[in-house]
Design a protein that fits this description.
Blueprint (H helix, E strand, L loop, with lengths): L2 H11 L3 E7 L4 H5 L12 H14 L6 E5 L2 H11 L6 E4 L30 H18 L4 E6 L1 H12 L14 E6 L1 H6 L15
Parallel strand pairs: 1-4, 2-3, 2-4
Antiparallel strand pairs: 1-5
Length: about 200
């Protein structure tokens, strides 16, 4: 391989991707305190307004791509954010919310202190999916600024992988909250997973 090509490959591998991580706006089930999991969900009026506020905030910032979970509530939020930039919304199942199995559709306060069913997505699986997302984004958009719209728990897993910490150490994101990460492909590939022993049921993500 030519020396120039080697340098070019090294440069691309070390280009950092800026991820503007967003949680979707409030949904009908968020307001009802219902566990959504991987159901599609629907933004309520407050959630639409929250998404519009994020769109205004990011309208003057450079954005190269908009990526969202393939669940409807995230796509709705992403489309509002993408509109000022004239960008399409690309979707990925890697950004889906945690699969809550038999807890899906239940009223969250009723789930406190309940034994978790076997069909809830494990934290190890969730963290591996979060790591795969970071690898995918940095490989697909090297050196770019990417808005990524996900959900409360998967975003928490992404932040845990990014911060090399346990999920319970990460402060949960509120609806339409924005956090910014800068990740190189090498950092994403070398990131490990730190599983937590906690089994607390969180909010209606």
């Amino acid at each position: 391989m030519h020396r120039f090509e080697k340098k070019q490959i090294f440069f691309l591998r070390n280009m950092e991707t800026t991820i503007i991580l967003v949680r979707h706006g409030e949904t009908v089930d968020n307001a009802r305190n219902v566990m959504q999991g991987q159901t599609q969900g629907e933004l309520n009026e407050r959630g639409m307004e929250q998404a519009r506020q994020v769109a205004v905030r990011l309208a003057s910032e450079p954005v190269d791509a908009v990526v969202a979970s393939d669940l409807h509530r995230a796509i709705q939020t992403a489309e509002i954010i993408a509109e000022p930039h004239g960008l399409p919304v690309n979707t990925t199942a890697l950004l889906r919310e945690r699969d809550w199995g038999s807890f899906t559709g239940r009223y969250i306060p009723d789930l406190r202190n309940m034994v978790w069913p076997d069909d809830v997505e494990s934290e190890d699986a969730l963290l591996l999916r979060a790591r795969s997302f970071l690898i995918y984004i940095t490989a697909t958009y090297p050196g770019k600024r990417v808005v990524a719209v996900g959900h409360g728990i998967i975003n928490k897993a992404i932040l845990a992988i990014y911060g090399h910490c346990e999920m319970r150490e990460v402060q949960r994101m509120m609806n339409a909250e924005v956090r910014v990460l800068t990740v190189s492909p090498e950092r994403a590939s070398s990131a490990g997973t730190v599983a937590s022993s906690g089994t607390t049921v969180a909010s209606a993500e």
